[in-house]
Please model this.
Amino acid sequence: MSWFTRRWRRAVAERPQAQSATRPLSLEEEEARDRGYIFGESEGEISRLDLQHYMFRWEFGGDFMAPLSSPLTILDVACGTGRWARDVARQFPQAAVVGFDINQQQLETSLAEGARSGADSLPENCTFLAGDALEPFNFPDGAFDLVMARATSAFIPVAQWPSVIAQMARVCRPGGWVELRDFALVRSPHSALNELTVKFANLAAARGIYPGAGPYLGDFLRTAGLGNIQVRKVAVRSGGPQRATRGGRLMLADYLALLDRVTPFIAQAGIEQPDRWRQLLAQARSETALHPDTCYAEVELTAAVGQR
Model:
């Protein structure tokens, strides 16, 4: 795990840092990134992950469920675009907020976009590292008041969930909090969208992941030995103005973009021909837009938090 940007305030310079020298990702790490995360690293994926961030915020009414007052250290595991970390750093200016992700290029692109717009500059108390969440975290035990991971079912192999949660618990201080947020599988009465979902789930299973891990988050925390576990579930639904939830349109946009991004992997795995996949996707886009109340999508989001 290595630094790729270091923007600490002097006042937090002695707070938790990675215990290795600066270096680029190795060839093995780059190959692991390409194998494990199938949604790419383009500007389109940055936009999709940002939509996902706001959907979680709107549906749960905030960026975390842990009962925080004045945290000093916060870790964002597999931080994606880093938007959650940046927002939380502004909310808690006294805290050192660290995010890490294996996709260094995606983080750098997101930071550059924020700097160009002037609306999302990097807070002085926030920094990012390049690192693989499937490997042991290179932080000392008990380093953070809050350890957060969101939508990580997109890349965590089923067999590795216990080890990832164990690492999150290890780097959380006694009395601190570990929080997870994730999805169940999308459901829909729409035949094309359902067919896409079944085939996407088959692709994920072939790669050893399960992108519907949300219902099991509380169990993961219990298995890791955490206490005071709280679980909250929210049903998110697209549709017309009278039936959709606040984040429903974001959820549907996020999901359709995700299905578009896996097109080459669906073909490589022999699950569906690209032309047929694109036809189903175009049908789902068109009919969910034209008939939102009957051709809708719904998914259950879960937030689970436990205390070390």
Q: What stands out?
A: The chain has one domain: 2-184+210-234+300-307.
